[in-house]
Structure formats: structure tokens, C-alpha cells
Amino acid sequence: xxxxxxxxxxxxxxxxxxxxxxxxxxxxxxxxxxxxxxxxxxxxxxxxxxxxxxxxxxxxxxxxxxxxxxxxxxxxxxxxxxxxxxxxxxxxxxxxxxxxxxxxxxxxxxxxxxxxxxxxxxxxxxxxxxxxxxxxxxxxxxxxxxxxxxxxxxxxxxxxxxxxxxxxxxxxxxxxxxxxxxxxxxxxxxxxxxxxxxxxxxxxxxxxxxxxxxxxxxxxxxxxxxxxxxxxxxxxxxxxxxxxxxxxxxxxxxxxxxxxxxxxxxxxxxxxxxxxxxxxxxxxxxxxxxxxxxxxxxxxxxxxxxxxxxxxxxxxxxxxxxxxxxxxxxxxxxxxxxxxxxxxxxxxxxxxxxxxxxxxxxxxxxxxxxxxxxxxxxxxxxxxxxxxxxxxxxxxxxxxxxxxxxxxxxxxxxxxxxxxxxxxxxx
Amino acid sequence: xxxxxxxxxxxxxxxxxxxxxxxxxxxxxxxxxxxxxxxxxxxxxxxxxxxxxxxxxxxxxxxxxxxxxxxxxxxxxxxxxxxxxxxxxxxxxxxxxxxxxxxxxxxxxxxxxxxxxxxxxxxxxxxxxxxxxxxxxxxxxxxxxxxxxxxxxxxxxxxxxxxxxxxxxxxxxxxxxxxxxxxxxxxxxxxxxxxxxxxxxxxxxxxxxxxxxxxxxxxxxxxxxxxxxxxxxxxxxxxxxxxxxxxxxxxxxxxxxxxxxxxxxxxxxxxxxxxxxxxxxxxxxxxxxxxxxxxxxxxxxxxxxxxxxxxxxxxxxxxxxxxxxxxxxxxxxxxxxxxxxxxxxxxxxxxxxxxxxxxxxxxxxxxxxxxxxxxxxxxxxxxxxxxxxxxxxxxxxxxxxxxxxxxxxxxxxxxxxxxxxxxxxxx
Lengths: 427, 427
Prior knowledge:
- The structure is a homodimer.
- By secondary structure, chain A is of the alpha/beta class.
- Helices cover 36% and strands 23% of the residues of chain A.
- Chain A has helices at residues 56-62, 94-101, 106-111, 116-125, 128-144, 160-176, 199-217, 234-246, 263-269, 283-290, 300-305, 314-320, 340-349, 355-361, 364-369, 397-400, and strands at residues 5-12, 16-18, 37-39, 41-46, 49-55, 63-70, 75-78, 80-82, 147-153, 180-188, 222-226, 250-255, 274-277, 295-298, 324-326, 387-390, 407-412, 415-419, 422-423.
- Chain A has an 8-stranded parallel β-sheet with strand order 8-9-10-11-12-13-14-15. A 7-stranded mixed β-sheet of chain A has the order 3-2-7-16-17-18-19, with helices on one face. In chain A, strands 5-4-1-6 form a 4-stranded mixed β-sheet, covered by helices on one side.
- In chain A, helix 7 (199-217) packs parallel to helix 8 (234-246), helix 9 packs parallel to helix 10 and helix 13 crosses helix 14.
- The radius of gyration of chain A is 21 Å and the shape is globular.
- Chain A starts with a strand and ends with a strand.
- The model of chain A has no long low-confidence stretch (mean pLDDT 96).
- The interface between A and B is large, with 39 and 39 residues.
């Protein structure tokens, strides 16, 4: 008789297991539709890692689990990865939501002292505990909807002290919350009010003082810059990226959202992990992204939320061979949405991605946009055992079903952390 | 000392109580933004009815409740009313969802034997228990998201027997489920395959045999007809509505969705309870609706889901003095969405309605679209005590917050039926 190795957990008999297994690296172009489907698939977990993927019959021959969970009738996917959020803020901008409906543009509202700067005022006035509480409650809701890894940007402090306070909140909450966090420094989110007439001095400050200090403290893995109309110029963006690279931070950019600036091409040439938004990306930018290791992160909820007429040209990017990821962009102004499944629906309906392409976009490609493709984003041997059992039978049903939360069981590092809409333990 | 009257339940100290109180009848035009806000508002319930609305201090002087629920920090609204669903079906059309993304139109898919007719085949083949189970599970999810009254249409049977089976499923499930149901006969949903070359004979059958029999059995309150390209003509629609009126049924129409036919003007002249879809409504139609008692029901999720470029001109309708309601259109083909809060977000983002107008659209105006404005849709003395406590502080935050389910406590007829994402008893 064969001796079976002990393991901690087996998730058994999924109607459809979408493992996202495949060659290393982000999925590009047509390969983005390859999601490693195994009907009847099961997963074995030990020490928080995936130790086997296959049919239950095979797995049971080799492994004996402490806990077994049936996924009968259900889709099983890797835990979802949200590669672009601004989730550490306080307050809200519900009144602006109404102003925009009544015809004011995002830029109008910013010019009138609302917009990002109103959240900056709120964050500067908030306590550390307040920042942590706001972030933790948003992560709770994200986790309940299947997100197990998320990027969180600073960018509502805009002083060294307040940027560090935001990033420290991310670190402290990340240490105790089930959602795995990746911190990004976004001091170059907008020019703060006190530097309005001295924008060059603010860019100087970001590059010479803030970036080196954030890097020295190890508070962020990435540095991001918002290059656009009403934000920073291409030349300013280049300076920020150069300073970040010099300090050893990974690079990200807010690119071509309201105006085409070419920052995405520059980001691609500089080896950025991602270029995000891309609603007005040019053909040349697309070629640069396709030729690079930079992931194109689309934010379709934002397009809907700010009332822009056109979504990013995701199909053209896919056809050109870009690796496309999708994120919520969770923030109080332009995308007050915590749900990657809803972002997937809009990826299909707005970006015209297929359900398989959308799933790749919120798993393995999103993981690569965070430099974590080696650790999360697929169910493969040795990777983190982050997975979601969904109350639908296939990956097509996930974006097709809008409204109700479909995540039945959420597992992080091999532990069940949420079940049928409830968190299993206080974090 | 004053004697306090006993009551069953008090919901106390809402951050914002939106009672939707006001003059009788649907809210029209600018009045649609009047939602009866009472900061710090409380509600007392007795015998399943609202017996008092006011501040807690006042209510406590007059009433002594068996149960008290704090709504501190929360928005309280009437239970939401979904005035247009096709919720009694089996199977799904997730594959079509993908086909549409790949470029096939709703009409293409229907012409290829998919679309409504594929659901008709599934419904005809389903058992009664299967029909009931599908409907009940959808109602569970709707209730968890704040819907306490819903219209459900037949229209996937298209034989007298199968239409009656659908309507009987609605009746049986309605008798045991907390969601209050209103049944609509939609035999004229599409021409069934067996009548493809004899459409006049099918219209005859609907008018002479099915409508009288459904009315005789008391299985439906309304009769609806789908007048559009690929469905029925204006003349056929008129016949159906005339037969329905003769049989004593209320009238509803699927109007001006893919093509302008003028059925909405006709419905207004005939005193229909509602005209629904209206994406291609003309100025003349809008004038006719504004001058009538017919509620204009917009379905923004459907517009998004079928990939149409333009939403219904809700602002023009509001400015003309129409009463506008919003529904999910829950169905397996063109709107697989069970969430009125999501429909409210799209009412704001797509239809450009304000949060207050959107709330009116899914409460009192939706109730009037079902002829139930005297019973539900607002928190006023004598009305059903259907209400929702939301985990947000104001009505603006409801459409502004996308993703997570915000309904904290759902109360029907004065009983708590759902709490933090769980149904409180098996139905």
C-alpha cells in the first residue's frame, strides 16, 4: 500500500478549475485567453503553498488532507490580484459624484478645490488609527469579493511626513490583514496647494527628498507618477521615474488617461512594471508596451465612473501582443469600487475582453504588474495557496453575473479567511 | 404620565431617513428629486405597517417597541422595488455573453437559434420544481441587496401551458418568499419557433386564448408585449394591449429599445402602467408619456450589457415631466443582474440621474409602475413596513459606492428578513 503524504487542505472536484498555469511571465496577446482549465480539478495545499493540482482521484492517492472542501459545481480560481488602488484614504467624495452628474467635469471639480486635494486635506487631518481603519474596512470588502493581493498607493499626503504616514498605515494593516499588500509611493499624484505656484520645487522635493527617504525606509516597492492634463508633464514624469529608479524602486505610471502624453512609451522603455489607465494610448505607445516587459493595466470602472465616452483600446493592445491587466482603481473620486468581479464584467462589456482574457487580467497578469508573478496569480506548484471558490460553474459566469457577490470561499496561504460573505476571524 | 402604545419594531436614529413621503402619485420631473429626507429619522411599525415616522425622541413618547434596531450612522430607505424582471427561468446564456463580446449582436444570436428562444426551450423542458428553485434563488440574492418587491414576467413558455406554469411558479414562490411579487403575462415576448411562419396565428392565440385564460385564472396583474425589431409590430402590440385591457389586465410594454416604433405613445394613450426600455424614445413619445399616467421605466444595466452606445434619454424625460423608474431587467440574455443598487449606480452614471432621482426611481415610482404606489415604495403611515438599513450615511453614498453589498438589514412587513448578507430564515 502506498503511503500518502500529509497536507493541510484539499479543495476538491471543482466544476472548472482555472489554474492560470502556463509558461513563466505575463500572458501576452492571444495567450491571454489561455487560463489552464481543468474540469473536475482539485488542489492540495501544504505549508501555505500549492503542492498538487490535478483530479481528486490522483491527488487522493498521494495526499491525505487535514481539511477537505468540496468545490462541486463551482469555479475555482487563484485569489484575485488588484494591481491599482488608492485604498488608504479617509472621507468620501459622494457630493462630487452628484456634481459630475450635474455636468461638472473631473477637472472642473479639481480646479474648484475639490478632487484629489480635498482628500489630501482629509488625510493630512486624519489620525494614524483613522487611516488604518479606513484601509482595513476596504480590504475586508475586497477580500469578501475574492481579492487576496492588492497594490495600495500613497499620494494623499503630499508631504514627506504624510506620505510616510500613509505608507506606514499600509505596512501595519498589511501585517495583520489577510489581503497581501504591495505599497506604491505616489508623491507625484498632484501638486499640493502650498506648491501651486512652485511646481518645479515640488517635483524637486519628490525626487530629491521624498523618494530617497521612502526607499531608505523600505516603505514602498514601487514609485508611481500621474502624468496628464492637470497633473504632471512628461518631462516632470521622466525626472520622477529616474529618481525612483536611482533609489531602487520599481516603476509605475498613470498614463494617457485624459490626454495622450507619451508617458506610457517612456515607461515601457524604462522597464516599468506597469502603465495604467491608457484610455488615450497611441499606436506607437501600444507598440512600445508590446515590445517591453511593462504590463498595460486598464481601469474600466474609472472610465464608467468619470463618464468618459471611450474605454481603453484593450483589444488593440491584446492584438498587438501587450500583456493586459485590470484593476479597480479604488479611490474616493474617480472609482469608488472595491470589486474586481465588477471590474471583470466591465472588462468584458467595456474593454471587449473575453471572460478568459479578463480572468488572466485580474490574476497572473495583475501579479506581474506588481512584480509578484513568481508568487501569486496562478495555482502552480510552489506558489502561494491563495484561491477562491466561486458560486458559479465556469469562468464565463463570473463576469456574466452582475450584482450579487459570487465568492463562496476565499483562501489565503491555505487558510479559509472568508466564507459566504463573512470574514472568518477578526483581523 | 403618558401611556405609550405598544408597537412591534422601531428603527431608530438613522443618519439619514429617506422616507419618499410626499403627495400621492408618482414623482414627476423635478419633483423626482424630492425624497423626504429626515436626518436622525426613526420609524415605528405595528402589524406590518408603518405607524409613525419622526425623530426617536418623539416616537419614544408615543410608542413602546418590542424590538428596537439602531440605524445610527446609516441611511434608511423604503424597501426597493424592481419593476421589470424576467426572473423565472432556468439555465443561463453565459456563452452568448462571450459571443456578443466577440462581435455578435443580440439579434444575430437570436437569429442563430440562441437568445430568448434558447431559454424558451430550457423552460419548456424544466420541471415545476426547477422553475421555482431558479426563481427563489434569484429572489434570495435580490432580497439580500435590498429588493423587497419585484415584478416577474412570464414569456419563456410561449404555449398556454408553459406560460401558466411560469406564472404558477411565481404565485407559489411568492406565497412563501419574503420578496413581494407582482406577476406579468408576457406571452408576446417573441414568436415561438413553431409559429415562425404563422406569426399572425400566434398573435391570435395570445389574444384570444392565452390572455383570457391567464386573466380568468387570476395569475397575472399585468400583460406586457415586446414591440421592436425582431419581435412584434406596433399593430400586433396594439392588438395584444386591447385584448389585455378587455380581459381586465393592467398594461405594460417593451418599448423603443432597439428601434423606435411608437408603442410607448400608444401605451401612454391606453393608460398603461409603464413603458419600459425607451432607449430610442422620440420627443413625441416623451410628450405623450409626460401627459399620461404611464411610468417610464429605464433599464440601464441592459444598455450596458447588450453594448448599446446610448442610454435612454432620462434627463429629457425628467425635464419633460415624465415619472421615471429604474429596474434591473434581470434575465439570462440581456441583463444578468440582480442588483438594484448597481442599477442605481448606472442610473446616475449612464442615465445622468441624480442620486435622489435614482432613489425615487427604485422606490415610489417603481411602485407606481406596478400599480402598488398605495402600498409600498415610501415610508408613510399605513404603508407596508418594508425598509432597508444601509451601511452608508446618505442616499448619495448608495449609487456612489459600487461593488460590495451595502444592505445591512432588510425588513419586510415589519420583520427582519436579512441581516449583513444572510437570510434570516429559510423560505
